[in-house]
Amino acid sequence: MKFYLLVSFLFIVAIGHAQDISSNYKEKKVALKDTVVIDSAGINPKRFAILDKDGNSPNPFSYKIDFKKGVIIFSEELQQQQDSLIVQYLQYPDFLTKDYFALDSKIIVENTGNIDKLYSLQESTNQRTFTPFDGLNTSGSISRGITIGNNQNAVVNSELDLQITGKLSEKVSIRASIQDANIPTQEGGYSQSLNEFDQIFIELFGENWNIRAGDVDLQNNNSSFGRFTKKVQGISLGGTFNNEDGSKISAFASGALVRGVFSKSEFIGQEGN
């Protein structure tokens, strides 16, 4: 039983080897010229034949073969006698003709003279993500003091000053301020409405425009008529426009709500009282 298994195994191996040889056995019909390249991977010299159309082999001295390069050089006499020949040869297996590298050829650095640095850093192509309110600068202080005089009692003073400046984008900047010169001192903190601060505003501005809301100072001192200076709580818009002739036009507009409290005091005096 073992003998039959061994014979069967050898028979299968022989068939596989024969099929592998037959698949690598090539036949080409080439036109005769001075130099003909048969196979770039080389030719096996043990199984090689050149035949004409009648199946006859030409004179071996009428051609030269370089088996390593797979090149055949035909003589002029043979080129005059035949116009084409059939070349039969055994091609080398792929694992013999394949190129093997210890390293990937793509990472090999060309000789540039600077062999101390064999790598290069590439800049990141990722775009910078926009972060809201990134780059804003805040500054401020809360000060408390005591005032003592000869003709007055001790008084506690408290002041608040908060400033915010920075850029919202490349073309838009922001400026804000909160100021109060009389902050009550209470344990646990305190709260008050916006109109109770001495000054509070927020302003957005660019190269040729600005928008301000809160405490706005309205001034017009450039004209000979209608000069005024007002401090209101509202919004103001301003901008500068460039003309084609190079001149500039400046304009501004503002709006405010005045919430005044009207009071009247009447005193009727009597002599002797």
Characteristics of this structure?
seven-stranded antiparallel sheet, three-stranded antiparallel sheet, 3 helices, mainly beta, 273 residues, single chain, disordered N terminus
Topology, pairings included?
Blueprint: H1 2-24, E1 25-31, E2 35-37, E3 44-51, E4 63-66, E5 71-74, H2 76-81, E6 84-90, H3 94-97, E7 137-149, E8 152-167, E9 173-180, E10 199-205, E11 209-220, E12 228-242, E13 248-256
Antiparallel strand pairs: 1-6, 2-5, 3-6, 4-5, 7-8, 8-9, 9-10, 10-11, 11-12, 12-13
What is the number of domains? Answer: 2
Taken in chain order, the helices and strands follow as HEEEEEHEHEEEEEEE
Strand content: 35-45%
Q: Helix fraction?
A: 10-25%
Give a short summary of the structure.
The chain has 273 residues and is mostly beta strands.
Characterise the protein shown here.
This protein is mostly beta strands and about 270 residues long. The protein has 2 domains: about 20-95, no CATH class; about 135-255. It has helices at about 1-25, 75-80, 95, and strands at about 25-30, 35, 45-50, 65, 70-75, 85-90, 135-150, 150-165, 175-180, 200-205, 210-220, 230-240, 250-255. The strands form 3 sheets. Strands 7-8-9-10-11-12-13 form a 7-stranded antiparallel β-sheet, with no helix packed on it. A 3-stranded antiparallel β-sheet has the order 1-6-3. A 3-stranded antiparallel β-sheet has the order 2-5-4. Strand 4 (about 65) and strand 5 form a beta hairpin. The radius of gyration is 50 Å and the shape is rod-shaped.
